[in-house]
Structures are given as structure tokens and as C-alpha cells.
Input
Amino acid sequence: MKKVAIINPYASGSYLYAELKRHKIATVALYTAPCDELPEYVRESAEVFDKQIFLKTANLEDAIEILRAEEVSYVINGFEHITWFTDLINEKLLPEYANSPSTSSLRQDKSLQTEILKKNDISHIKQIVVNINQECLSTIEQHIGYPCFMKPKNGTASIGTYIANTRHELLEIVDLIKSTQNSLVSLNEYIVQEVIVGEEIVVDSFSFNGEHYISVVARYEKSFINKKPVYRYVEIVEDQKIWDMIAGYTKSCLNVIGLNNGFAHTELFRLQDGSFRLIEVNPRISGGKGIINKMATACNLKNQVDLFNEVIFNKNFNGNKFLSLSGYARALFVFKLTNTKIKEPAIDNLDLNSLVEYNLLATIGSISKTKSLDITGCAMIILLYNINKRQLEKDTATLFRLEESDDLI
Output
């Protein structure tokens, strides 16, 4: 029997469960906190996963005892903040699939990822780490200057990210950070980086024994609203030469942080001169309710769970082939921009040739003006696919016009 455990399946939990079930793989979700202490955004219903087990804390002996009794054959890391714990479990329980606990910090601490790239002469972003207080302003100005990009040291999903172009803006941001609380990330320590002008790229992969199998290479379209970077859509890279160059750089990054086994969601910049800068590696499956993996499936590529199943259980090491790519897929991130009630989505009444599915994240009838323009504030995710890119562009424009006029949800 194929059976896996997922430690804190916060990223795309429902999607991960559905895909593993499609491959006839049984699942045990092991959480390191009681159910009522989980953040609402990542909490799954009781029907998701074949079994859910809740520990009081991240106790290694308890976890090993439980998973040994469950007879799982693989342990998946479900969230970047618990990487150290997953590594320790695998070292004791399934060493053939383990990443070394001695390098867990490189996979969990985004600031250390940049430092290890620098040490290995791999192109990287200039950065410093600061505590958020009034004294940090002079440090930022001395070492980075303006404009500067700021993100929590232990951040996720663009939560708590900002860009400052002037000292006045930086002061406002510091005051805002100090007054903000978030259950998913700590907002005390921040990574402050030079602003990179380039195309933002995401690479989803699965690794086994140091071999990295690429599922998809995609590019984000983002814009800044109220000094915050906001995802507008993500689409698959169509040029094989660019795809291969991005994949090569990504594999170098995975190697130096010691990610030899498991899923990875890697974000980077591609500059105009063709060089790359790592943003971060997240040692987990792609987030966003599985939307990028769904794009891969729509375009006839193997998604991350397909690769996992083939490599671990079927011992098929062929990976993905770019030539399998068929058609054009795009995922749109829709926000509620007015202080009005969420309506029934108008999308069902539209003539959209490219529509595959949509996922309404906000509650109908609630007043849900977007407070945070990150993925946790997204009101709806829409997956589009078409063999005709012109039609895809037309449907995208229609949906964003309706978002702006508050006629979509």
C-alpha cells in the first residue's frame, strides 16, 4: 500500500490530498499544534486527508512513534517553517529520503539562502537583515539605499512585503509593520534587499537523491498597489531555451542549500541581460491552492505530484519534457477593491472560451474589501487555458475590467 505523511500541510493542502488520492496514495496529515490553534487560512476540513493527527507541540519522539505505527513510506514537508522537524523525522524514520538536518536552516531561513549563494559565487541579491525599529532606517540607508524591498525573515506568500522609495515611505512602513500582527509569520526581523528590475519567475520541482525534476517554469505578472507587490497572474514560460536556462540556475540553488529530496517552489528574477537572482526557495509543494500545478496539468505537463509518484513509487526517472507543453495556461488573482458585499461570481454568466475553473476564496455576503494585497487577501483565483493565446488575452482583459468595476464578485 502506498502511504505518505505530510507534516503541517499548510500549502495547497486540499490540492495535495486530491492529487495523492488520484494516484491511490493514502495520506496522514500530522500537525504540530492542536486544531483550534491553526491559522484559519491553512486549516482544512476533516474530510481532507485520510487521517488527521494533531500533536500538542513539535515533539520528535511522538511523531516518530505515530508515523512508524502508520507505516508510511514517505514523509512530505508541508510548510517551510517546519522544515527542521521534517528533516529530523526523515533522518530517523526514512533516511533514504532525508535532507540533512545540519543544513535545515539553509532551506528554512531565506536570508541564509542568499548568503550561501554568495559563498558559492552564484548570482544573488544584495541584502541585510534588520530588526524593525526606528534605528533600522540608518542601517538600511547605509547598506541598501532606495528603492529597497522588504520582506519578513520567516515570511511566506508575500505576507508583510513592502517597497520603499524614500525615507518618508520607509518611516510609514516601519510604523505599519510595528502595528501589524500575523498568525503565520513573525514581523520582527526583516530582510531588506536592493530592488531588482526583472521578470519574476517560479519553478516547481521534485527532487530525489540530488536529482531535480522540473514540473513547470512560469512567470508572474505583478503590479504595485499601495507600495505592495500584487500578483495579477502567472503563466507558463513558452521559450524552451529560457526554460532550460532557468531550470539550470534553479538546480544550482537547490544543490547549495542541500535540498536533495522533496518538493520545492523556487522564486527568482530573470534580468534583462539574461542573468538570474534568487528570491527564495520554499521546500514544499507550490501554494496558491495548487494553481500552478493545475496549469501544468492543463498544458499536458507532469505536475509535482505526478513527478513524486513516478519517481518514488514507479521508479520512473524520465521527468518532464518541455516538448509535451501544449496550449497556454494562465492563473488570475482577483481582489475585492471596494467596501461592498461579496456577490455571487458573475463569471458563470460570461462567455469565456478559456475558463477552466475558479476558486472563490471569499464568503458570499461578507463585506470583504481586501485589506492585505498578498495571496492571503486574494478573493478568487481563476484558471484559464486556451490553444489560442489571443483568446486567452481577451478573456483576461474582460475579467480584470470586471474586477476594477466591482462587477465580478
Notes: The chain has eleven helices and 16 strands. The chain has a mean pLDDT of 91. The two ends are 44 Å apart (CA to CA). The longest strand covers residues 211-225.
